[in-house]
Amino acid sequence: MINLFQPQVGAEELDAVAGVFHDRRLGNGRRTRAFEEAFAEHLGIPADHVVFTSSGTTALHLAVETLDLREGDEVVLPSIVLPATAEAVAGRGGRPVFCDVDRRSLNPSLEDIEAVLTERTRAVLLLHYGGRTGDVVRIAARCRELGVLLIEDGACSVASSVGGVPAGTFGDLAVWSFDPGRVIVTGDGGMVYAKDPERAARTRLLAQRGLVRATSFGHAAVDSAAGRTPPPEYGRGIVGNDLTAAIGQVQLRRLPEMVERRTRIAERYDRELAGTEGLLTPPPLPEGQETTHCLYWVQLDPAIKDKVVGDLLAEEIDTTSHYAPLHRFGPPHGGEHAAPRLPACDWAVDRTVRLPLHPGLSDEDVAAVIGSLRRAVRTRLAEAGSEEGLTVKDTP
């Protein structure tokens, strides 16, 4: 099977985990701090402003919690996100308000966001789809003008940038995911960044069960304040640990080579799929933008999309259609607060298919994906055009 995604882990990661076992300190300790420091250096931000968490989802919930949403506060986000994104807002008492996206890049523009802003908008939660930063520069500037907080969901954009400025540093908060489908993989894990020093300190406090220190690992055994000072507010145990952090440090060191391979694969897809009848490749990157190439997608006519996906699976090529947009659903994902119509989002979701993209793909694998996809599209288009009463509508 040619997998859609495939973590790139090996001897270096095993050695790093063995070192944690040797130390017999598996909790949140010095390796966690080292991973946070290395990640912060990678982005050019202060190390004490980032917190390694147990997952990308917990990082997202933690970031939203620091907004202190009140009843009626709205958070604008694209409808093309994982359900957990809207749940993070609704779960803290906010109202998710979904905006449309560019139908080719699947990223919202400033105009898409402005179309649903109201006087109740407290924040914008911006996903960098597939690793592309989209309109983040203009969106961040507008949020600053309005006094609206901006959270960047950088799950796919750990090495993306605009004009040399890293994704995740444009807004007030940012989160990343290190689950098995991402570029950096730690088994599970996430990172949250808060630009404001006070918000950053509170983020760490909330992640560490409301305690100033997560564990005694790497600290003095005696703390004169222990047992006498109550936690300042409720928290939860969602910090990462030294096992996953040790893997993360290795993955971060390997990031340039992994992104380089992803880029070469994406460029080959672009080059060899370009001009295929009935198929659209992603639009060119705007000047000055760099992407991590976490995802690669094509867009097909809805009349043939599912059949093409089935054809590829029969040849042991794993793909996936895009998950359904949240504005099509009701509670608990906040669908009752959606805009009346999101036509570009609907158009994109009905046509988008993700292809395998990870450094473990061989040149032969990439050639197999390209060849199989082109044959399947050609065959299904011919069938659709020959069936009585059936025409291929809205062909990209």
UniProtKB/TrEMBL annotation:
The keyword Phosphoprotein does not apply. Gene3D superfamilies: Aspartate Aminotransferase, domain 1, Type I PLP-dependent aspartate aminotransferase-like (Major domain). Its cofactor is pyridoxal 5'-phosphate. The keyword Transferase applies. Pfam families: DegT_DnrJ_EryC1. CDD domains: AHBA_syn. It comes from the Bacteria. One of its GO terms (molecular function) is transaminase activity. Keywords: Aminotransferase, Pyridoxal phosphate, Transferase. PANTHER family: DTDP-4-AMINO-4,6-DIDEOXYGALACTOSE TRANSAMINASE (PTHR30244:SF34), TRANSAMINASE (PTHR30244). Belongs to the DegT/DnrJ/EryC1 family. L-glutamine:2-deoxy-scyllo-inosose/scyllo-inosose aminotransferase subfamily. This is DegT/DnrJ/EryC1/StrS family aminotransferase. The lineage of its organism: Bacteria, Bacillati, Actinomycetota, Actinomycetes, Kitasatosporales.
